[in-house]
Amino acid sequence: MTKKTVGKPFYYRWLAGERIYRHIRKAGLKEEEEREILTLIEETVHTQALSAVLEKLPAQKHEEFLEKFREKPDDLKLIDYLQGQVEDIETHLKKVFKNLEEEIIKDVCESLKDSEE
């Protein structure tokens, strides 16, 4: 999870992954543990991102969007597609990701604190 978003799903542009990653790095975990945590975070982000999109996208457009996403998840044209379907989708996704980022950082910090005790 770095600033580099090449090959990452289109929604990574709104995720401040570096902040999350810094908190994980502070823990001094083994490389394998760190990878496991990052994998869980990426799965959570993916699920939340798609949920946030589908929540706002008209139901009749879900299948079309998911097909486009499956074909090319990193295509930034997906943003244009969503903006053509949902008013203020970018604002909605930014808010979702800001909240998700804060929640993940809080959970990581709490987990690390608990493991130190």
Notable features of this structure?
about 120 residues, elongated, mainly alpha
How do the helices and strands line up, and which of them pair or pack?
Elements (H helix, E strand, L loop, with lengths): L16 H10 L4 H26 L5 H10 L5 H9 L3 H28 L1
Describe this structure in words.
The protein is mostly helical and 117 residues long. The chain has one domain. It has helices at residues 17-26, 31-56, 62-71, 77-85, 89-116. The mean pLDDT is 88.
Estimated radius of gyration: 16 Å
Number of strands: 0
The domain tally reads: 1
Strand fraction: under 5%
Q: Compute the number of helices.
A: 5
Uncertain segments are none
Helicity range: over 70%
Mean pLDDT: 88
In short:
71% of the residues lie in helices and 0% in strands. It is mainly alpha-helical. It has one domain (10-116).
